[in-house]
Amino acid sequence: MPEYIWPQAADRRLIGSRVSRLDGPVKATGRARYAYDTNRRGMLWAIMVQSPHAHARITAIDTSEAEATPGVVAVHIIQDVGTEIQWAHDEIVAVAATSEEAARDGAAAVKIDYEVLPHFVTERNLQAAPDAQPAQAETTGDPATAIASAAARSSGTYHAAQIAHCSLESHGQVTEWQDDETLTVWASTQAISGVASQLGEAVGIPASNVHVETQYMGGGFGSKFSADRWGVVGSELARVTGRPIKLMLDRNQEVSVAGARPSTHVEVEAGADGDGNVVAWNSRGWGSGGPAGAGSPPIPYVFEFENQTHAHTSVPTNTGPARAWRAPNHPQACFVTMRALEDLAHEAGMDPLDLFLKNIEKTGARSSTYAEELEKAAALIGWRDRWHPRGEQTGTVRSGLGLALHTWGGRGHRSNCEVLAYRDGLVEARIGSQDLGTGTRTVIAIVLADTFGLALDEVKVTMGRSVLPVSGASGGSTTVGGVSGATRRAALNAVEAVLERIAPRLGTEATNLLLKDGQLHFVDASHPAMSWKQAASLIGVNPVSAMGANPGPGQLTDSGVGGVQMADVSVDMETGVVSINKLVAVQDCGLIIDMKTAESQVYGALIMGVTYALTEERVFDPLTGRMLNADMEFYKLAGIADVGEMVVHMMTGPGYDERGVIGLGEPPVIAPGAAIANAATNAAGVPINEMPMTPERVLAAIEAGGMA
Amino acid sequence: MRRFEYTSPQTADDAVRMLSSEGAAALAGGTDILSLMKDGAAAYSRLVNLKGIRGLGGIRNTDAGMEIGATAKLGDLLEHHGLVTMFPAVAEAAMGVGSRQVLSMRTVGGDLCARPRCWYFRAGFGLVPMHDGESMAKQGDNRYHAIFGNSGAAVFVNPSSLAPPLIALGASATIHGADGPRTIALEDLYRTPASSDESEFTLGFGEIVTHVTIPPPSSQNATYEVRNRKGMDWPLATASVAVSDGAARVVLGHVAPTPWMSAAAGEALAGGLTDASAAAAGDAAVADARALSGNGYKIQLTRVAVKRAALAARGG
Ligand SMILES: Cc1cc2nc3c(=O)[nH]c(=O)nc-3n(C[C@H](O)[C@H](O)[C@H](O)COP(=O)(O)OP(=O)(O)OC[C@H]3O[C@@H](n4cnc5c(N)ncnc54)[C@H](O)[C@@H]3O)c2cc1C
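Output (C-alpha cells, whole complex):
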C-alpha cells in the first residue's frame, strides 16, 4: 500500500506553484458553455409568473389566454388556488413556449387573483415586528456583573442589511428526457450529485437515471445546492411537452428569490479590565428570518470571553427564504464582534491591534496563527507607523485603519475519484465534482500531475457529470480538501497499480520500480530509467484504473483556519462617501495546491466584501412588500474602481503545509466588512455601525457623533 | 414581445411626421427606451430612429455659440477639445457616466429626454404612482427621490446628466415640430407632471429636440456629482455652476422632478467665487429643500455639491 502523504516541499513541482486556471482561455474567449448557454434541438423556453404581493392567498387562476397565446406549448400551475403566498416574486405558474418572447407573452397573459394579506418586510426596528419570538440566551459566567465592574465599557448597536447572492449566471437549467425513464439536466449548480437524487425523487424516476451536467458555473455562493422548484418545474414541463426546456431565472428573479443572506442587528455591551483584557460580553440580536427562520450568527465571534451572553431572534418576514451565503452567518458575526471590540479598544484608550494581541489567547486553538498573521498584516499595511487614535484626524477627507479576524472549518468533504492510466501515456482523473469558477479543475489536475510526475498537459480531468464517481457538493469550503484528498489517494493507488501491471513485462518486481519526474526508474539501477511514455506503452489495451476516496488513510486534509484582514479607508466627512485605499488579507489554509487560484479566491472575496460593506442591500418596499431594487442598477455591486489596492498574503511553510489541504472558498469573505467598518470608524472619529456604509448612513453617524 | 414598427427617416420633418401618431416614440441610443420597453414600464407601437437623420449629430461652432446635435454621443463630447476646455461642467457630467458602452451609445437628446429611474415607475406603477390616493413614493422608500419641487404627487428625480450643466451655461434647445423649428431655454423643456397621464416634458405631439446651443463661453464653470460608487452609478445629487459677467447660475441635478435652478445659490456667488461664497451658496441652495421620509441626507449632499462645484469652477 502506498504511503498516503503529500510530497515534501522539495518534491513538489506543481503543488504550491502559480498555475493559471486551466479553463481560463475557454472562458475568456466565450467558448466555455454554461447551463445558460445550453441550447438543444426543439427546445422550449419557460418563464415563471411571480406573485406581485408579499403575502396573499391565491383565489383564482385563469390560464386560458396564456394557453391561446401564439407559441405557447404548455402551462404548468406551480402553486394552485388556496395557497398562501409568503413573499413577493414567489413563482405561481410556468409557461413554456417556442421562444423566450412567446413565453413572456404567455406569462403576461396568465390571470391570477389574490386576497391580499398584511405583510412585514422591514425588521430593522424589532419593536415593529409582529410575532418575533424572544430568543433563548446562551450564557457563560456572569456578564452583567462583569460589565458593571469593568474598567472600560463600550456599547453599540450594529446593523448589517439583508443582501442577495446575485450570481452572475442566474439559477436554472435545461432539462431533456431521453426516454420515459431517463432525464438529462444541464444545471447551474454547486451539487451535481445531490441535484440528481433530488430531481429523481421529485419526478419519480431512479436517481441513477438523472444525469446532471455542469462543466462551468457562473457563481453560486451557497445559493445553488438544491434542484429548486424551477428544476422540478422544468423537468415536468419537459415531460409533458416531450421537448427540452430551458428555464433560467431572469435578473429580477435572481436577485429577488434565488438567495438571501439574512440581516443582522445586534445590541452589544462589552467590558475590559484595566489591562485591556476583555472580561465581559453581553449582546442580543435579531435578523430577517424569512418564512422559515434563519440561523443565529456565532456571536461573540472567534473570541470566547469568561463572561458572555448572546440571544438571537429570527424575525419572520415576508422576504423569501434565506439561503446559505458564503460562510453563512460569519460575516455578520465578524462585523458585530470586531466593531464592538474596536469600540471597546477606543474606550480603553488602546490601539485595537494591542487589544487584539492582548486577548489573542481567547481565540483558542488558532491563537498562534492569528498572532503571526496580525504581525504580517500590520507590516503590510504599516499599522504601527500609521495608526492614529480615533478622531485625531482633521480635514474634509480623513483616513483610518481597521482590522478584523475570522475563522472557518473547511475540512475536505466526502469524495471519490477514479484515476485511469492509458497506454498512450495519458492519465485521467474522473470525479463527480463541479468547478464553480474557484479552480477545482485546475487543483485536481495539479494533484494528479504531481503524483505521476507529469506535466499538466499530460493529464486530463473529467468532471462535472453526475455519472462520475460521487463527490460532495461544493459548499462549506470543503471541495478543495475533498477533491485533493480523493485525487491524491487515487493517483497514488494508480501509480502502484501501473507499476504492478508493467513490472512483469519488464522482468522485475513492482517494488524495484519508481515513477519520478516523468521517468520510470529502476531502484537497483539494473536498467537505465525510461520515459513515462515508454513505460505506459506496456500497460496494454485496458487502462489501469484505481479508486481513491476522501476521507481515507493518511492525513491529507484538516479543519480550521484563521485569517486577518486590515483596511485603510478614507471617509469624506461632508458627503459620507467611504473610499477604500488598501485592503490587506493574510490567510492560512494549510497546504496550498495552486497559489495563483488561491490568491484569486481571496481577491474575489475582498471585492465581494467591499460590495456588502459599502453598497449592496436588498431594499424592500414597506408599502407593497416587493423588492424595489431587483436589478443591477440599484442592487449595487462594487466595480473595479471601488476596491482600492488589494494585497494578499498566504501563510505557507512549516506549521501550515503539514496540516494538509484546507478550504479557502469562504474564509476571506468574512472579515472585509468588519475591517472596513473599523477603518471608517477610526477615520471618521465616530462609530459607523451599519452596512452597507452608504453616504446616507455615514452622514447620519457623523451627525449623531457630533462631527458634522 | 409586443410588436412595434421601426422606421428610420432621413429628415427631421419626416421624423416629426412619423412621430405624430399615437404610441410613437423617438429612438436615439436606445439605452433607456429599450429597457423601459423590456421591463414593461412603457409600450410603444412605433420607434422612430433619429440616428439616420443627417445634420442631427455633431458639434459645431456657430454665431449663436456651440451647437450640439441631438444624436451626438456623449463620447463625442469628451473627444471635442473645444467643448472639454471651455465647458468642463458638461465634460465632467458626461464623464460621470463611467461606462464606455453607455458613453458610446448614449446621445445628447436621449440624455436630455431620458425617463426617470424612480423604482416605482420602472416597476410599472406609472410616472406619478399613487396608492390610496397618495403618492406611493412618499409612503414607500424614497431614499433616491426629490427634495425640491416635491409638494405635489410627483417626487421622481430628473435623471439627465447634461441638463444641469447646460442650463447653468444658459443653453437653449431647438425643437422641431409640425410647424418647423422653435427655440426655447433648455430649462423650459421640463415640467412637473401632476399625474401619470401627463408628461415630464413640454414637447408637443411629434416634436423632437434637434440640438442644444451653448452661448459664447462663460468664464468659469464646473459640475460636482456625489455618487455611492466610483464606477457606473447614478449620482445621488449633482450641482453645476457657471459664472459669466458677474452673474452665476447654479443648477442642481437628481434632486427634483426637473433640473432645479437655484436662484439663491446663484445670488450667493454673484460677488465672486471664494471659499466663503461657495459655502454660502451651498447653504442658500438648500434653504428651502424639503426632505421626504427617507431622503434627508440628500440635502447635505446637495449643499456640498454646490460648494464643491463653485470651488471647482474657481479652479480648486
Ligand atoms: C447600463 C446602463 C447604465 C447607465 N448608467 C448611467 C449613469 O451612471 N449615469 C447616468 O446619468 N446615466 C446612466 N445611464 C442611463 C442613460 O442616461 C440613459 O439610458 C441615456 O441617457 C439615454 O440616451 P439614449 O440616447 O440611449 O436614449 P434613448 O433610450 O434612445 O431615448 C431615451 C428617451 O428620450 C427620447 N428621445 C431620445 N432622443 C430624443 C430627441 N432628440 N428628442 C426627443 N426625445 C428624444 C426617447 O423617446 C426616450 O423616451 C445608464 C444606462 C445604462 C443602460
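Chain B is about 30% helix and 20% strand.
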